[in-house]
Amino acid sequence: MMPALVCALWISLAASLYLVLSRDTLRCVIGLGLMGNAVNLLLLASGRLQYTQPAIVPPGESALTLAANPLPQALVLTAIVIGFALLCFSLVVVMAIAERSGKDDLLLLRYTEPKDTASVAPPFLEEEKETPWQP
Amino acid sequence: MRFCLITVPFLALVALLTLFAGNGPQLPLIFVSQWVPALGVQFAWRIDGLSVLMLFMITGVGSAVFMYANGYMRGNPQRMRMLVLLTLFMVAMVLCVCADDLIVLFLSWEATSILSFLLVGFQYEKKTARKSAQQALLITGGGGLFLLIGFLLLAQQGDSFSLSSLVRSLPDLPRTPQLYAAMGLILIGTFTKSAQFPFHFWLPNAMAAPTPVSAYLHSATMVKLGIYLLARFDAGLDCSHGWQLCLQTIGSITAAWGMVLVLKERDLKRILAWSTVATLGTLVAFVGLPGQHAAFAVVALLLAHALYKAPLFFVAGNIDKGVGTRIIDHLSGLGRAMPWTAIAALLAGISMAGLPFSLGHVTKGLIGLAKETTTVLSIVPMANLIFNAIAVGVATVAAVRVFWWHPVKTDAPGTAQEGSFSMVTPPLVLAGCGIMCGIFPQSLKPLMDQAVQAMLQQGTLDFLPLQAVTDFDFPLLLMVLTLGAIFFFLWDVLHRIVDVVVNPLIKRIGAAAFYARSLAALPGLAAGFTRRIQHGRLPGYLATILIFCTLILGYLLWQARPYIQQPPLSLNGSAWLAWGAVILIATGAITAAMVKSRLTMVLAATLVGYGSALLFLFAGAPDVALTQFVVDTVFVIVVAAVLLTLTKISPAAVPEPGWRPGAFVLALTFATLITLLLMATVSQPFSSEIPDWFSAQSVPTAHGRNVVNVILVDFRAFDTLGEITVVLLSLVAALAVLGKSRGLELSLPHSHQQNNTSATASIVVEVAARYLYPLMIAVSLFMLFRGHNEPGGGFIGGLLAATASILWAIAKDVPASWQRMPLQTPLTLSATGLALAAFSGVPGWCAGKEYLTHLWFDLPLGWTTLPLSTTLLFDLGVYLCVWGAVGGYALHLLAGDEPAENLVVERSAT
What we know:
The structure holds 2 protein chains of 2 kinds. Chain A contains 3 helices and no strands. Chain A is mainly α. In chain A, helix 1 (2-20) packs antiparallel against helix 2 and helix 2 packs antiparallel against helix 3. The model of chain A is unreliable at 125-129 (pLDDT under 50). Chain B is built from 35 helices and 4 strands. Chain B is elongated and about 130 Å long.
């Protein structure tokens, strides 16, 4: 079970990071969601996966024997729900950005404030001239 | 008040004299009290011979300066401020020379730097004053920083913060690189303070200060602090070759170079300042000479210089006040108009030139003796020669040329006014002291003996060789007079030579030019740095964060190499299933990363979610699997709705290359490191104490067989309460963001009758939804109630109910689904759920237990009893909260692509 989980973690984390570094806002947010997913796998795996019996006490008995570790499951359940709420919030923010600025390209959304006239402010991007750098 | 301040140093001087002249207390006086015991830092004070010498200089010259300042600043409204600052400075100096603890010494050192800054920039309206003050502070303050680091390193090496014990143990300390670094840093600190090469250029610029300040700080006391510290360390390092080499070299270079630069100045104060630099250089060089004769020379020169330089500065101040200018081209024949000043200048000049019957002469003799009797680098006598020669020249210019006879005919100034009593007395007294001490050097013997003893830390030594230095040395005297005459007549010629030859060189590659260029380049550097680092591109920032994390994590994992082990491969039934789920995850992940169409990416991401859910299921986590399934279903719907809205707003796809090698490499590296981290973690032994406790207590105390759910709603109910609070808060924040861009709040719809124009999916979905909706709500409630003993619970129930609401929104439209949700708005529903969950902990509180301790009681139902508890209330609260929050999100985002007319435009007061 563990090697499978290790592989799943590796692939999903790599894909999610690749998406997070993207230029498109939606891709970035989806990557974030996938990253949360990958970290949930990590959390569950670190609680050790020796036993795959669900952590439910059979009726009539009073304690678990040889079942999966319940504690990381509780944590991951919490994490899934909160992660989803935050993902929804990120989507709302993406939509708000798109509505207000008309763009969803992260390399063109460089300024959150009006243009600064101080002498040491970063240069204002002239839309057509500069070729945006991207990792 | 002013009178009190003026007399402070004089009173201190009197106190010193009464204490130490005659049979005073035995030196050294020591006083120690605790300050920071944990760090070994104490309030340690130690007054020994060297301290007493410095104290005499500080209070003696201080008395003169205070009196002079009072007269100099007459009529100036800032007079009180000057006196206060001077008093503070004097206190700081006294603390510095009496301190025995490195930290106390450092603090008073920095205090003198700051007070010097305030005093140099006294006339802050003038730009030159401000710039000079800034330069002085930057250089001496920067040196202070090096000094602190050196002190800390030294304290670490010597295992103590006490200066005296460190110096005593210095010869025996092992010569580690840290010790060399410490001494090097301390040397830099002292060189900046005492204006040695290459930090020498701040001192002449500090002449922008008023004359009393220049006389006190920058000739007699503050700049001597560096010499004082070097003299302290000399006790331990006298025999060290590196010490001797370094000090002699730097000191000689400073002495020679400073004196050469004297010739290029025309301002009298700047001439005196450069000669001070040269004297400091000589002092440093002679501290570097081993043996007691050199120590006597240092002590004598310290005293003599204070006694002749301060009067000369007072003279310059008197000329400035009386004539209005300090440029020596315009000064000649002032002797008649300013007789007392002229006499003071003459006496001081005699001492400076080293003519007989002056302390300067005694000093010259001692210096000569030191040069002969110790091993010395050849650079030192050469520099000393230049120093002596030009010093005679400076003395003749200041004493003779300005006041009596100018060799070249110049325009004499119109009116010259003699200074007042308080401006004329101090230079006369100080210069007179210099002459008296030269005639009766025995009077200084106890003072100098004690000082040299403190410098060399030896018990008995040959006393001051007075005989040798007070003999008349005719050839020397003749040489001095000849040199004086040469400089007297050739001053202007030499000045022109230096001006033409040296000045352009300095302006390009001098230390001052370097400083100016660095300071000017600083804003440009900062701007460039900011432009490169704060470029405003989010992918760039994310990449920077990831790279740093990769480097740190990589380093740590490299250290933890032995722990990374491959997890054992097992091939039983559930392992095969797990690999199947992994294939789904892999397919989804790779497709999501590589595909161009955004819709396909979303679907592939959902596939990853479903694959993970299967993986959770096979790993024995059914609750988690259920939650993941439902969350992913809601996810795909919500993201698809957002995608639709985004496409409407910006239809053009973002021009991104399909293959980004940099991101690929970075992502792969980081993912590999995290995976290795997991493998390292899992290979360690696992203590199952906590899970075992939960498993054992679940049924007896919490009456639940589903251990996961019991943990969530019972054992760690407070965490869950916090979690649903977070979910609710995120909804509130999202509403705030959405409200701004749409400007309204969604309330009860009354336009849902006209929903036929909105896009409904299909008639099949609409009809099926009519039956599916109540079924889904029923299932969600079933999940809620069974959660305590079987897989299920509030979260899953709430998510299923939210899915039902979404289904209704797709089948009909958003306002219809909105209305069907209980309690008017999703926000209200969510808040009610939170309140219910929070309230469910109160009964336990009232029963005397902790908040959120759940109470159980059995409800008799005739043939059986129904166990009820506050757990159900809590879970119900969670259910409602999650339904409201997730449903709210989904409905708002789904409404995003509906035309605004279909939504309510009324602001109802809900």
